[in-house]
Amino acid sequence: MNLAALGQAVAQAQDAPPDHAIALIRPFLHDIGWFNDLLAQGCAAMTADPMHLPSFRASRSGAARHLVLARTERVWLSATVIDQVEQAGSRVHFSGRHMLCRPLNRALRGEGFRLEGERAVPTGPRHCAVGDVLELDERHETLRILPDDAPLMLLRAQIAGRGPVCSRIYESATGVLVARAEADEGHARALMLLSLLRVQGRSDAAAQFAQALDTPLAAQRWAVMREYLALDTASALPALRAMAQKESDAAVRALAAGTLAQIGGVPCPA
Asked: Residue 222 and which of 43, 76, 208, 262 are 20 to 30 A apart at CA?
């Protein structure tokens, strides 16, 4: 396994069916020669030049620090360090993705959870030794990592299915849902481009706004409609009327009807 092969696998996984996408990435968690080579190259570069900075993006969330090694719309691969911080009463996160992780410096200890209806139910302790690979379908099951006597370093991949990803956060003690979010990265990027077109006054791109209304997420459909109305209200009116009558999401349908009334797009009852 080498970095070139990893890049090819990630690119192929982006457009592959979910099971095949997972199968493409899995070998790179079992054979991490490519990762060891990457670390060796980075250390050599920093030895030769103390000012050298790796080209990978880094991020931090609470006790976890991530080095993003590869990222596409559906595939995330990162090296993660989780500091030894006690998380009393912490929450558990179901990412909505298939997760593979490999502990690098010590065994991973955790508490498992699965979804039963709208509650997160504990499933008991989980253990993954150094060098082993743990797999979880985080649409239905997850793991709360427990602190130990040293930070935990792991290599982790997350692979999403096609279309929107739904993530959920629950209280670990009660199993009660705390937050829920849906995301579709492809449509989110499209919305950003539409915003730029709207700011530039590109009314010649109105057809692109109409096409973008097919997003499967109701909140994004309404966001696209707002941009469309701001760009060219007259062109957007037929789509707004259709949304007010046929939109499947009741909240968005009500927003469309209210907006239609405000701009005078409702036919006179007489």
From this structure: 76
- What angle (nearest 5°) sits at the alpha carbon of residue 267, between those of residues 265 and 269? 145
Domain at 3-183: CATH code: 2.60.120.10
CA distance readout (Å), 187 to 142, 217, 220: 27, 9, 8
Give the per-residue pLDDT at 254: 92
CA 235 – CA 62 distance, rounded (Å): 46
User: Using one digit for the tens of pLDDT, what is the confidence trace for 203-212?
Assistant: 888 888 888 8
**Helical (H) or strand (E) element with 222:** helix 218-231
State the residue for tokens 């730029």: 196
**Helix-then-strand count for the chain, H and E:** 9, 12
- Residue-level pLDDT at 24: 94
Residue located via tokens 């379908």: 137
What is the chain's Cα-based Rg?
Answer: 23
Low-confidence ranges of the chain (pLDDT < 70): 85-89, 265-270
Q: How far, in Å, CA of 243 to CA of 54, rounded? A: 48
**What are the boundaries of each domain within the chain?**
3-183, 185-264
Task: Give the pLDDT confidence score for residue 89 in this predicted structure.
Answer: 53
C-alpha span between 161 and 184 (Å, rounded): 11
